[in-house]
Design a protein that fits this description.
NA-bd_OB-fold, 3 domains, 313 residues, S1_domain, OB fold (Dihydrolipoamide Acetyltransferase, E2P), Ribosomal_protein_S1, 7 helices, five-stranded mixed beta barrel, alpha+beta
Length: 313
């Protein structure tokens, strides 16, 4: 009789604990869980009378960053007996699945401290074809959150394979360029902390007098220069804008490296001379200086360029 009573009491306790687990899941509350052991796929977590599971991929990055030479098994051994913040990401009494995530708990604790434009010291976790996953180092010295540097944000140079530039364990500096709080994703950039080679070129190519500097690029001063692909259409559209009287190519040059194959337009900060502004167009290595004769001021030209680029496919 006593045995029956004990079994029934245990069943009641477990049912109550499953309800508690579901409540944690629904509220998104953080549970401080003790690690009881581990197996080949993850860690075993005590939740009152229940035993839950924390898969290795749901561990926060700080454990591996702290001692990068340790295997995941050694990390697991060190965590046995530790109490860490967790979130319930699955609580199914019928299938007896109680799954935890440390990553989700850490996101809740630290993501509110982030904003676009923040700069972090970071460590590369792993690299894929499309980019690198990087762990952010917080002021307490721990790597709490992970973001991704897309291949297009690794370098101003054309990157064919991220692995040629970054490897797991590399220390890098990154800038936050986007935070998706709904999907718990951070987008990072390495190249935005470096000077854009084009802007460096602009300082050299278009000094304050607004003219090309022949010493900075290979300069071609022939009168029969062909516009870069797509530029002629932009010229036609610019001439349709009120206040723009004339558009013509002045000179062209060639940079030492390719930054982008896309056509890019830049307006010089040089003061206008005789109602003439200077634009710089670039595609691949080729750079062309464009003279714009206009009655518009600099802000008016920017707005005209914006309207034109919205019309041109």
């Amino acid at each position: 009789m006593a045995g029956t009573f004990f079994f029934g009491s245990l069943m009641f306790e477990r049912s109550a604990d499953w309800k508690a687990a579901k409540a944690y899941y629904e509220r998104g509350a953080i549970y401080e869980g003790r690690i009881e052991g581990y197996n080949g796929g993850g860690l075993l977590v005590r939740f009152y009378s229940l035993m839950g599971f924390l898969p290795f991929p749901q561990l926060g990055p700080s454990h591996s960053c702290k001692e990068p030479n340790k295997t995941i098994r050694e990390v697991a051994e060190d965590l046995v007996g530790a109490v860490i913040p967790l979130k319930v990401i699955q609580a199914d009494e019928e299938s007896r699945k109680l799954i935890f995530s440390e990553k989700e708990a850490i996101w809740s604790k630290f993501s509110n401290h982030l904003k676009v434009g923040d700069i972090f010291e970071a460590k590369v976790g792993y690299v894929e074809d499309y980019g690198a996953f990087v762990h952010l180092r917080f002021p307490d010295g721990f790597y709490h959150l992970t973001g991704m540097v897309h291949v297009s944000e690794v370098s101003w140079d054309l990157v064919q394979d991220v692995r040629d530039i970054l490897s797991a364990g590399d220390d890098v500096k990154v800038k936050i360029i986007n935070i998706d709080r709904e999907k718990s994703r951070i987008t990072l950039s390495i190249k935005q902390l470096e000077d854009d080679p084009l802007l460096e070129t602009l300082d050299k190519v278009i000094p304050q007098d607004g003219s090309l500097n022949p010493g900075s690029l290979g300069i071609n001063e022939e009168s029969n220069i062909e516009p870069l692909p797509g530029l002629e259409t932009i010229f036609q559209e610019l001439l349709r804008e009120e206040g723009i009287d004339d558009v013509r190519i002045n000179r062209q040059g060639f940079e030492k490296r390719v930054v982008s194959q896309d056509l890019q337009l830049w307006l010089s900060n040089a003061p206008p001379a005789d109602k003439t502004f200077v634009l710089l167009a670039r595609a691949g290595r080729q750079v062309q200086e464009i003279q714009l004769t206009t009655s518009l001021d600099q802000e008016g030209i920017k707005k005209a360029l914006q309207r034109v680029l919205e019309r041109v496919p």
